[in-house]
Amino acid sequence: LKCIWAQNCRVVSTVSMVESAKIAVIAVARIADQAVLATCFDTGASSTEKQSFESAISSLLARSSNAYPRWKDRCECDGCDGTVFVLADAQATCITAVGIRDPKFPERVALQLLRECAEKTYNLQGSDLTDAVPNSLNTALRKPLRHLMKTYNDASVDKMTKTQEQVDALKGVMQDNVKKILETHVTLDQLQNNTQSMSSQANQFLRQSVDLRRQVQLRNLKLKLIVVACVLAVVLYFAMPFLDF
């Protein structure tokens, strides 16, 4: 039972390591003859995964014939959900490649890893890079490549990404606040426009009321004058015989 339990623990540990490892492979290749000088795979990588990443690296090597210093490129893997990033060194002698399992892994961090890998490779094997035969630097570069893989598998290495996420979140809050302020401003403008419109309508109604009152007064005055004229006419009509007499 203890033996079975230990085997199960090793299996669970291996599965957890595969799930948590974002970097599947780091490689160094020479541009001139497209020779792969060193390759370091994650210990949990399957044979199918290795073939997929190796095929992607070969495809990128074929594109690197006209590479210049700090040339970069990327390629999606066919047999797995992975991406390979490559970067030429400052001398355009070699390219460093990294295979990433995590689709959300930032390209900026991958290029940072490749720059560091290129610097370490040149510092350790600079004089041997032009003459080394394929896969001859596996032993010499295994330790630094594994160290890079372990370092960049740690999520805390990308502090800038976390900072950027916090900035984006803060930006979203600020945008929401500005939107609310603008909506409030629009509401105030609408209220002000409605108030001005109501004030204009009230003034117009007041003017119309004054005009109507004047018209009514004028009509009443005309009516009174007509009545007075009629009364005078009747009085004169009946008074005319007496005046003639």
Automatic annotation (TrEMBL):
Residues 159-219 form the V-SNARE coiled-coil homology domain. One of its GO terms (cellular component) is membrane. The keyword Transmembrane applies. InterPro entries: Longin-like_dom_sf (IPR011012), Synaptobrevin-like (IPR001388), Synaptobrevin-like_transport (IPR051097), V_SNARE_CC (IPR042855). SUPFAM superfamilies: SNARE fusion complex, SNARE-like. Pfam families: Synaptobrevin. It comes from the Eukaryota. The chain crosses the membrane at residues 223-243. Keywords: Coiled coil, Membrane, Protein transport, Transmembrane, Transmembrane helix, Transport. This is V-SNARE coiled-coil homology domain-containing protein. GO terms for biological process: protein transport; vesicle-mediated transport. Signal peptide: none annotated.
